[in-house]
Amino acid sequence: MDLAQADAWTLRQKFSVVIEKAARELAGTPCLELSEADPPKQEICCSRMFGSRLTEIEPIKEAVPTYTQRAAEKLRAQNSLCKKIRVSIRTGILC
């Protein structure tokens, strides 16, 4: 009760800003925002654009496992599971 009724500015000068905010919170003045955890993402995307037009399949074959691994790392980081993986390869030619 003493802390809630103490002068916040004096507490800040004598102790710290943390004590000041605690006193303000006890007195009913919100100082700290409570944030909820972000919900898990529904989609994870790891994409790659090559700097030049590819005419060989090998660089693409090398890139797919690398980007699949990055997506798996993101999935594990949010402690999630997945049902499907989609790999898309698109040419730069417009139809």
Comma- or semicolon-separated keywords:
mainly alpha, 2 domains, 43% helix
Please provide a written account of the structure.
This protein has helices at about 1-5, 10-15, 15-25, 60-75. The chain has about 100 residues and is mostly helical. The protein folds into two domains: about 1-30, no CATH class; about 40-80, no CATH class. The longest helix has 20 residues, at about 60-75. It starts with a helix and ends in an 18-residue tail after the last helix.
Outline the low-pLDDT stretches. Answer: none
Main sheet characteristics: none
Radius of gyration, taken over Cα atoms and rounded to an integer in Å: 26 Å
Give the number of DSSP strands: 0
Shape: rod-shaped
Tally of separate helices: 4
How many separate structural domains?
Answer: 2
- H/E topology pattern: HHHH
**Structure class:** mainly alpha
Could you tell me how far the N terminus lies from the C terminus, measured between alpha carbons in angstroms? Answer: 73 Å
Q: Give the overall average pLDDT.
A: 86
Strand content: under 5%
Relative helix content? 40-55%
